[in-house]
Write a structure and sequence with these properties.
This protein is mainly alpha-helical and 110 residues long. It is 73% helix and 0% strand.
Length: 110
């Protein structure tokens, strides 16, 4: 061998392998962490969308219940037995009649 310090080549090789292993390990961990963060972000977005859908459904139910209550109150308060116009989307032969407050009390007391 034509070297002044024989173990210097071995030390250089070991240091190079150790540094290369750390570099590859960091690279692999970065890819794994990136994939994990991406999946967490997607699942969080799905949860937020589901929450917004639930809120919209609740609001629609409240609106429908409010409209039904308002409609019943207006029917009861009108007190006359005239026929109302058919509702949109209902069958053409169906007719809705108004019921007076007295008729409702009479049917409940029987």
């Amino acid at each position: 061998m034509d070297v002044d310090i024989p173990f210097l080549g071995g030390a250089y090789c070991l240091i190079l392998m150790i540094l290369g292993q750390f570099f590859l390990m960091n690279l692999i961990l970065a890819v794994i962490i990136f994939a994990f963060i991406k999946s967490q972000k997607e699942s969080l977005q799905d949860e937020v969308k589901a929450f917004h859908r639930e809120e919209q459904v609740k609001e629609q139910k409240k609106l429908i219940e409010g409209n039904i209550k308002d409609g019943l109150v207006s029917i009861i308060q009108s007190g006359n037995n005239q026929q109302m116009e058919p509702m949109k989307g209902s069958a053409p032969n169906r007719e809705i009649t108004q019921i007076s407050h007295k008729e409702i009390i009479n049917t409940n007391s029987v």
